[in-house]
Amino acid sequence: MAPFAGYDMPISYPRGAVEEHLLCRRSVGLFDIDHMGQVELKGGGADEFVSGLVSARVLDMLDGDARYSLLLDEKGLVLDDLFVYRLPGRWWIVVNASNRESDLAWIRSRAPRSVTVDDRSDDTYMIAVQGPRAIELLDAVSGGAASSLRRFTAGEMTIGGTKVLFGRTGYTGEDGGELFFPASKALEIWELLLAEGEGRGIETAPIGLAARDSLRFEAGMPLHGHEISPSIDPIEAGFKWACDFDKDFVGRKALEGIVAAGPARRLVGLDVTGGVPREGFEVLSPGGETVGVCVAGMYCPTVRKYAANAFVQPALSKQGTALAVSIRGKPRDAVVVKRPLYLPAYRR
Amino acid sequence: MKIDQNCRYRSSHEFARKDGAEVVIGISDHAQDALGDIVFVEMAEAGKKVAQGEAIGVIESVKAASDIYAPVSGTITAVNPALQGDPALVNKDCYGAGWLLRLSPSDQSEWDGLLDAAAYEKECGKE
C-alpha cells in the first residue's frame, strides 16, 4: 500500500505487478480508481464556458460523447488532463486526484454566475474494467448494455440493481470502460464483477497502481506530473491534437507562439538496454553530454522492454537516434523508438 | 517467509550457502517478497575479487533498485546466466534456480560471523 493524493492505494495485489499487467492484456483487470475526481458543470452558458476552459473541441459533442482534453493555464502549460463527458443537461469532467482541489479552484474562479460547478468526487465511486474480455463481462452484468455503446461514448446501465454511468473509455490501451456510481455501492459492484468473472470463466482480477502505470505507459498515455505537468506544454509533449485552434481557449495564444517558434524539446520514447531507466535519469548524447531527462521509465511486461519517456533536444528526437541513459552513473545504450510501444485497442 | 536452514545470512538479506569449496549467493525469500516483481539483475563478472560487504550487483524490481552486498570475501567464479532472460526466477525460487552468483571464499572465518537461520529469522521479525 502507498499513500496517493490522500488515499491509501495498493501498489500491487498479491499476484504481483507484472502478472497483473499481463492479465489485463489477456482478460479483464479491475481498477479501484475512486481517487479520481469528478466535476459537474451545468446552467446557462455552460457549453461556452467549458469550451473556453479546455483545449479540445467540445461544442460538436453530442449527449453521451466522451473526449480527452487538457486544462491549460495562460502560458499554455498543462494544469491537468481530463476526460470530458457531455451528458443530457450537464458536463461531467474527470480530473486527476492530485489536481482535484487546484482544478476546482481554477474552474470556479473563471465560471460565470449562471454556471454551477459541483465537486461530485466524494459521492461518486469509479471503477475501471479493462481488457479484451471486459465488454463481455460488462455485458453479462448489464444485460448487454456495454457493447451497445461505441468507443468514447457514455450511457446509463444497471448493474446489480444500481444505476451506473458507463463510459467506454480507459487508461490501459485495452477495450473496456469506466463505471461511475454512488460510493455506497462500491464494494457490492466490485465483488459482483469478480464473482461474475469467476462464474463465467472470464479471468478477472484487481490491478494495482504499478500495473496501472505500466499499462498506460506502454499504450502511450500520459500521466500528469510526468509526460505533462505545469512545467510542460502540450506541443513539446505531442498533444497538439488535443488542442482545437479553431476556437478560443485558455492558453491558446501562448500555444500559437510555441507552435510558431517550434518547441525547445520534444517527448520521445527510448528503448534502453542494460538497466531500468527511471524518472529523473539523465539522457546523454553518444559523446556523454546531457541532452535531456527521463520523465518516466520502467520495465514493460507486454513488449518485454526497458523503456523511458524523455524530453530531448528536437534535433535528437528522430526515431532511430542513438542516445544513452545514465543509470547509476553508467551510460546505457538507448535508442529513440516510435510511441506508443503498444498500440491501443481503439486504434487497431 | 521461507528460510533455508542450510544458509547463512547478512542482515541486508543476502544468503550464502556452502557448496563444496564454493559459496552460492542470493537473496532471501523475505527480500524477494519485499522487493516485489524483479525485472532486472546485473551482477559483477566472474573473476572479480570482492571484499565482504562490497556491492556485487544490483537487483531492480518494479518499485526500485537495490544493491547486493557480498556476504563473504572471495573471487566470483560464476554468475547465474538464466537471470538475464528471466530475472523473475529470483521471485520464483530464490534459494534454487534464482541464485545470483558463486564465489570462492578467501577467508573461512567470515562464515562464522554471518547470521544462522534462527538469528536471521529473528532479525526479519524486527522489521
The level 1 CATH classification of the largest domain in chain A is: Alpha Beta
Radius of gyration of chain B: 13 Å
- Neighbour order of strands in the largest sheet of chain B: 1-2-3-9-8-5
CATH class of chain B: Mainly Beta
Low-confidence stretches of chain A: none
H-E order of chain A: EEHEEHEEEHEEHEEEHEHHEEEEEE
Query: How many runs of DSSP E, i.e. beta strands of chain A?
Result: 19
Order of helices and strands of chain B: EEEHEEEEEHHEHH
List the domain count of chain B as a whole number: 1
User: How far apart are the termini of chain A?
Assistant: 35 Å
Number of strands of chain B: 9
**Biggest beta sheet summary of chain A:** 6 strands, mixed
Describe the structure in brief.
Chain A is α+β, with helices and mostly antiparallel strands and 348 residues long. Chain A has seven helices and 19 strands.
Overview of the molecule:
- The complex is a heterodimer of chains A (348) and B (127).
- Chain A is of the alpha+beta class and 348 residues long.
- Helix content of chain A is 21%, strand content 34%.
- In chain A, strand 5 (66-72) and strand 6 (78-87) form a beta hairpin.
- In chain A, helix 4 (134-142) crosses helix 5 (186-199).
- The longest helix of chain A has 14 residues, at 186-199.
- The radius of gyration of chain A is 20 Å and the shape is globular.
- The two termini of chain A are 35 Å apart.
- Chain B is α+β, with helices and mostly antiparallel strands.
- In chain B, strands 1-2-3-9-8-5 form a 6-stranded antiparallel β-sheet.
- Chain B starts with 7 loop residues before the first strand and ends with a helix.
- Chain A binds chain B through residues 11-12, 16-19, 210, 214, 274-276, 278, 298-299, 306, 328, and chain B through 36-37, 39-40, 42, 58, 60, 62-63, 65, 88, 91.
